[in-house]
Automatic annotation (TrEMBL):
InterPro entries: L-PG_synthase/AglD. Keywords: Cell membrane, Membrane, Transmembrane, Transmembrane helix. It comes from Rhodovulum viride. This is Lysylphosphatidylglycerol synthase-like protein. It is found in: Cell membrane. Its main location: membrane. It is a multi-pass membrane protein. The keyword Transmembrane helix applies.
Amino acid sequence: MTMTKIPSASDAAPAPRRLRDALLMGALLSLVLASLAGLAAATGWDQTMGQLARLGWMQGAALLALSLANYLLRSLRWNLFGRRVGLPPGLWRDIRHYLGGFLMIATPGRLGELVRVRWIRRETGLSLDRSAPLFVMDRAADLVAMALILCAALALSSGHIAGAIPVAALALAAAAVATHGRLMSALVTRGYRIVGRWPRLFGRLRGMARTLGQFTDARVLAASILLGSLGWMAEGYAFHLLLVWLGADIGLWKAVGIFVFATLAGGLTGAPGGLGGAEAAMIALLALEGLPLETSVAATAVIRVTTLWFAIGIGALVFPVAERMSKRTADAVEDR
């Protein structure tokens, strides 16, 4: 049997676009680092470094372990969604795809994570129409889990987090729209009537929208929300531990709420990886809790390194493995 390889936009990503994304990511990172450095200098380098000196390698390892727990739990959710769209069994394959895609977190809108869809097509032959909704459901499941955690934090912590309720409501609304097959199909149809061009593209988008109906099983939704909530709670708990170690215990649920709110707010800015927005929100909210600026800056810098940048680091290690194995599988299919 001979299978013709169909090129896709992701297979032939132009070098200028990749360079543009890398430059954008570098510029945003430089801006964030410059801002953090400026805040640290304003409060005195000695105070900020003194806060960081409270942490040892064991604390760092604990923070990374909790982040890794988040990534693995969400990988299991990816495997769960994959079975719903007809992916053949392959837990380690799905974990490899999910972790490898983290290299693309810091692309605009995290669209670079669609590379997972390319790996799926190469290794299983699953069409784009059936596999692309995995990306939508993964993003939506994260929004739901984080919104629910934020609501729990608001209910269980003392005081309030400014702007948390609108952000949680917006996250839930976005997830509801993105996962409603009929609504998404209607929006695509409306978009085609407005644009009046590219019927083939809009037809494929409608097909993808209809696939979302496969995820409406109550057991699948409950399991996906549980896995996502446990994962994000692990990172929220890591932030709580970090503040305790820095001598700034503000309570578990308040720390979890600030972490989740800042992560959501950063994502809503549309910046790659939420860079800039998440850090600004976190520092501002910690300052409102009465924490010294040197503690807020140190805590923000450490938690972002052990979450966002740790994920990108894992992605950098797994990405070439996933790419090589997917190519090997695709070549083997073509040779048969």
